[in-house]
Amino acid sequence: METELALPSPPSSLSRRLALVSMRERGVGPEQLRWIATDPEIFEAFYREHVEAIQGFVARRVGDRERAADLTAEVFLAAIGAARRYRPGRGTPKAWLYGIARTVVAVDRRRIGREQAREERLRASALLDEDDAAQIEARIEASTKLRQLYEAMDRLSESERAVLELVAIDELSLAETAAAAGVRPVTARVLLHRARRKLRPELEAVSAEPTANKGDRS
């Protein structure tokens, strides 16, 4: 079990202000991350830096807008609770946060069950206004092959699917993916290769779409 690291002495007022300016411009680095648990301004900088990406990560895996918002909040609450156990050697703050997000979403999936999740995705349309619904309907019609890819991903093991999603959908680098998934980079590369090999026909179909993303960040 991981132990909490003792926090360093609080910085002086001037150095703290300078650090905040730097964090808002460049992001919260490994050295400052543990302070998100005790410093509201550092947490705010960290939150603003990552909230949009985490919202996207959760929304792509959850079909209900309200539940997606709740889970996004849970991710950052969990990050506050885990901040003192962060180890820079195990990955960047971004990869560490994605690892927390994966855990939060996985727990939620187990809690509601697969069938209930599908039913909630259908009911979620009732929460949308007409303009939102029309936009989503257009996106659905334009992404048939992408949905077929998601269905085909059920053939993958949990670890293969996690690595493929983090690289191809969430656009993490292979090193960040490995840290988020809790595996070694060489293992992540092997898992990614296996996943791509199993889904080659579906991946080729998606890459042939006019609006598909070209290239990946493996």
Q: Overview of this structure, please?
A:
- The structure is a single chain.
- The chain is 67% helix and 0% strand.
- The protein has two domains: 26-127, Rna Polymerase Sigma Factor, Chain: A, CATH 1.10.1740.10; 137-218, Arc Repressor Mutant, subunit A (Orthogonal Bundle), CATH 1.10.10.
- By secondary structure, the chain is mainly alpha-helical.
- It is built from eleven helices and no strands.
- The model is unreliable at 211-218 (pLDDT under 50).
- The chain has helices at 13-26, 40-59, 65-82, 93-112, 114-123, 130-142, 144-152, 158-169, 174-181, 185-198, 200-207.
- The two termini are 31 Å apart.
- Helix 2 (40-59) crosses helix 3, helix 3 (65-82) crosses helix 4 and helix 8 (158-169) crosses helix 9.
Summarize this structure briefly.
The protein is an all-alpha fold and 218 residues long. The chain has helices at 13-26, 40-59, 65-82, 93-112, 114-123, 130-142, 144-152, 158-169, 174-181, 185-198, 200-207.
Q: Average the pLDDT over all residues and give the rounded result.
A: 76
Shape: globular
Rg calc: 19 Å
Point out poorly predicted stretches. 211-218
The CATH architecture of the largest domain would be Orthogonal Bundle
How many domains comprise the coordinates? Answer: 2
Q: Describe the sheet with the most strands.
A: none
CATH fold category name of the largest domain: Rna Polymerase Sigma Factor, Chain: A
- The CATH homologous superfamily name of the largest domain equals RNA polymerase sigma factor, region 2, helix turn helix motif
CATH C-level of the largest domain: Mainly Alpha
Number-wise, the strands total 0
Q: Assess the beta-strand content as a share of residues.
A: under 5%
Separation of the first and last Cα atoms = 31 Å
SSE run: HHHHHHHHHHH
Number of helices: 11
